[in-house]
Design brief:
four-stranded mixed beta sheet, 15 helices, alpha/beta
């Protein structure tokens, strides 16, 4: 598997057009995702349980009706500031301001964003597929998606108003209090990243955002290490040049990239993630899983996980030649699963138990990133 990344071309983009700003509507969307998928966010179980228990039945039912907008995908309707034609690409200071921006999205862009759950393959083109095909795809996802698809195709204005009321009711029910609690921390993080960008370099700011981000200065390209592929540009004249980074309290382990054609690119990144080692890259994770897929290497790991062994000892234990053991150990070492140390004239190999213990978390964080 080659490199799997989402890229953002920023060649020639003035530094002042790269901004770090909180977004109340984006954070509401991420909070709704955490509420619907608490398994993705083990550190938020208490909040999710208490919030779900406090919801009135009518609001809970309406959230269930629309939850595909923040579960199977994260709809771009939560980032309308990036899709306003001729807009400045800046987030709103309040949820009400960002809902006003959602109202300003033109009908085509609103439909494309809201229907993404039925026709995600159209994301790379930014053009919604034909209505009949969209309904077929919606039907395959179940009656809830089909009913929503019919409603939005028949009367997009009414659905847009329905969504606004839904988000306003969420604000009254729980999000206003939540935003008062987390908003100041997100604003502080955005200021810190802005200072890094101003006083140091974009690379320094990106490293502070996430280890999954890298910057090729020569090409002027930001790469986001994800199990998905895509690309966009931050110098599209349709919406004005710019790139927005949005911090999120509820986001971990997700690192979301809006890269729809004609929309201002957005990277929503988690703040305050658990104190764990940095996430493995997609390539390293694949290398480790491939290394462990071989039955003999699995048996070698059984020995190496218990105690350090020399190549000769492993060869004798498994009835194979020392060169064959060395070849398998080389694969495990390239994957970072085995360490070596010298004791006199012997070289001892041992399984890095901490790295292996992280594989489950690394896999989960990578597929959810």
């Amino acid at each position: 598997m080659g490199a799997v990344t989402v890229t953002i071309d920023i060649a020639g983009l003035p530094p002042e057009r790269i901004v770090f700003e909180p977004s109340p509507l984006t954070e509401l969307g991420v909070a709704l995702h955490a509420l619907a998928e608490p398994g993705h966010h083990p550190g938020l179980h208490g909040w999710a349980t208490a919030t779900a228990a406090s919801l009135k039945p009518d609001l809970a039912d309406r959230l269930h009706e629309a939850d595909f907008l923040w579960t199977s995908t994260f709809s771009d309707v939560f980032m309308p500031f990036s899709g306003i034609r001729g807009g400045d690409g800046r987030t709103g200071a309040t949820l009400a301001e960002e809902l006003d921006l959602l109202d300003r999205l033109d009908e085509e862009r609103f439909l494309t964003a809201a229907m993404e759950f039925t026709c995600s393959r159209s994301y790379a083109t930014g053009v919604m597929i034909e209505p009949d095909r969209a309904l077929d795809l919606a039907a395959s996802r179940g009656p809830k998606q089909l009913g929503f698809a019919r409603r939005i195709l028949d009367d997009p204005g009414a659905v847009r108003a329905w969504l606004r009321r839904l988000f306003e009711d969420c604000d009254h029910a729980f999000f206003a209090d939540t935003w008062r609690r987390v908003g100041p921390g997100l604003a502080a993080d955005a200021r810190h990243k802005t200072e890094l960008l101003r006083r140091k370099t974009l690379g320094d700011a990106l490293r502070d955002v996430s280890p999954a981000l890298s910057f090729d200065e020569e090409r002027g390209v930001i790469a986001v290490d994800k199990l998905s592929e895509g690309g966009t540009t931050a110098v599209d004249p349709a919406v004005g040049p710019g790139l927005t980074f949005v911090p999120s309290h509820f986001g971990w382990p997700h690192l979301m990239v809006l890269h729809a054609p004609g929309w201002r690119p957005v990277i929503a990144y988690p703040v305050g993630a658990p104190h764990l080692p940095g996430p493995a890259s997609v390539e390293i994770l694949k290398r480790r899983m491939d290394a462990l897929a071989h039955p003999l290497r699995m048996r070698l790991c059984r020995n190496l996980g218990r105690a350090p062994y020399t190549t000769g000892e492993l060869a004798e234990t498994h009835g194979i030649t020392a060169p064959e053991v060395s070849r398998h150990l080389a694969v495990l070492k390239r994957a970072g699963l085995v360490t070596t140390r010298r004791r006199g004239r012997y070289v001892l190999h041992q399984l890095d138990v901490a790295v292996v213990a992280r594989l489950g978390s690394d896999f989960l964080e990578t597929v959810l990133r």
